[in-house]
Amino acid sequence: MPDRNKVSQTCENSKLLSEDHNWHGGKILDQANAKGNALDTQGAIRSERFTQRALHKHKSVLPNSISLNGVLLKPFGGRNNIQDLVRARYMSTLPKKPTSLHSLQEEVLEKQMELVELAKLKGCYDKSVLDKQLVLVRSKLFRDYAVMIISVKAGSQTPGIDTEKYNKDDEHTFVNLVETLREATYHPNKYISSPIKRVWNPKPGKSEKRPLGVPTIRDKALQALINLVLLPLVEMTSDPNSYGFRPHRDCKMAIAAVRNQLKTTDLTKVRFSISKRFNKVGNQSAHLMRANQDKWILDADIKGFFDNINHKWLMDNIFLHPSLKKLLEQWLKAKIFDDGIYIDPLSGTPQGGIISPTLANFTLNGLEKTVTDSLSPLTKSVEQRMQVKLRDGTYRRFALATRLIRYADDFVVITRSKNILDKFVVPAINSFLKERGLWLSPQKTKQFCLSQKDAQIDFLGYTFKFNPKWSSRRTMIFSRQTEGAIALYPNRMKVITFIDKLQEIFKSSQNLSAMELITKLNPIIRGWANYYNLDNSSHYRSKVKEALYRLTWEWIKAKHPTLGKIALAEMYFLRKNTVIEGAVDQNSPLPDESVKKGYRMFKNYKWVLYGISKSSSRFSNKDITRIAYLLNPINSTPIVAAIKHLIPNTLLNVHAFEDKISELIKLKLKISLLSSSKTPTLKEKLYKKQEGKCHLCDKRIDFDYLHLNSVHIHHILPIKSGGGMFSLKNLALTHSWCHREHKH
């Protein structure tokens, strides 16, 4: 039998092709909007007839890997000239790679929204919904888009067990994958998943390692395809306070949701206000209230979440057509290759697969409702009926209700009393998880209130901690309401881990110039400061600044052991009175601006490490002197109140596949602009100028990906046509795919 994992091109028998032709010429043409499929199929039929005649004529000389039973042909370059001739003839009839990722994205999103609308009317398990899923994954539109998704991801260059990477320079790679997806979706019974290569990545700040599974390129593409029709239904049924692995939601929104439940309050004032505004029942409710530091918290940890999801439960409940379930079953049962040993998984889904985050969210969707429903015996009690009228006329429960906030498998529950946790919440969670083959870790799951000594919540890299009186010397927090307050600041161990990372970079960069070192460090510092810019982060940002200053001096001294401090300072540190005439600022201002005397950006910073380099411009033969400065983590980005990231109640149930998502996108854009750097890079300047939109397609650019290769700087008027090389008026920010497709 041929090895089906290594084949890469379709060769179907005439009966199957006839069925394909009828399929593409029938009603499915309208449903999938697959006009191109009909032409593609006709060409494939003509090619197949030629192929079968050639195979029959030269049957004796062809290798066993070519079959008329739907087995794919091998790539070009084989020893048999007849096989190459047959394949060349067949390949000439195949469609070419689409040039516009953006146009595909728009069409795919439209079809996904149609799928969601149908599911709202009929239900996610309805036959019409599942049939539409199958129609979509078989359409050329979705197959093209799935392959293009993986081609632009960094993971396309991470080989699986077959050691193959996505070859962007070879158009046949794209065409082969698209046809492979067609074969798999039309004949799922013949599909066999390749083993998954396991790699171990260290967890930040811990000695433990996290197992990641790396599928082959073929399996990645197929997972991306199935995810296109599964994700919309999972999104539609997601919990309101679920923030992980969801489009247009992020860690800071989850942190803001927790912060909203744990704001510093003056309980006396709140009770007095409620007693004035409400009747006797409201007055009783006011006395039932607890200060936020006295609320009880369940800091939950699911034991080995990705490794223990029950396969049977997943297969019985997933929103997938039966034919597509067969593909999912192959991925779940795929052998894992770990350090020379093949392992048969009995449960779980490998971390690292494209579809794994969607499966994770599907598994835990409904947990929030389960917790809410568990409190039904309390429905008639005072604490469940306490509400406050908001400005927009709606009513909201006033901090007495139980809240569950989840990011992927990491979640916290905040409620009024320990009794509610023990009697209602924890049993409901245990029952929910048990059905899915999961359980809470007894060692890591904790119950406490913040008013207890040394109690704190560690959530997504941040710490929530209460202190009855914060030391003014630490400048950690200042509350206008009370001396005691709940602070939100970077987790101490995360800060230590980051400083250790900086130290390793300095040690490994002893042979680099100052310019090269700064170029290496600045993106890392900027990324850290962008994330840790909430509430009371200034204290630990100062610690990082101090560590940077110390590490810089150590690096300079090791580089020049015979020079004194004054000489070293003159060589490497920019002081207030330093003037470098004609130098171009590499950090922020445009290259046609010289560095100003008494550099304003660092007016509160005595010295700053700088580097100079001379290089020729890629637009001219002139040499340009460039200067770069080491970023200061204190003032590189402004500190923002966490509550600014809070999703309003009116948008909590909005998901990525409905029209109202535009309002949530606008909210994220507003927050991104609010968090823009005080020492902006050129991209950040353009981002603010364009209000976060792509110059070419007018769609939103995600601020989180601003400094990655997915965002390009575009010259509106080409340099060769007289456009300004560095003029702000002639520069625009675009998506990388929009930029590649654009022609002047």
Automatic annotation (TrEMBL):
Chain ranges of the Reverse transcriptase domain: 180-464
Pfam families associated with the record: GIIM (PF08388), RVT_1 (PF00078)
Endpoints of the signal sequence: none
Annotated keywords: Mitochondrion
InterPro entries referenced in this protein's UniProt entry, alphabetically: DNA/RNA_pol_sf (IPR043502), GrpII_Intron_Splice-Mob/Def (IPR051083), HNH_nuc (IPR003615), Mat_intron_G2 (IPR013597), RT_dom (IPR000477)
Coiled-coil region list: none
Protein name: Reverse transcriptase domain-containing protein
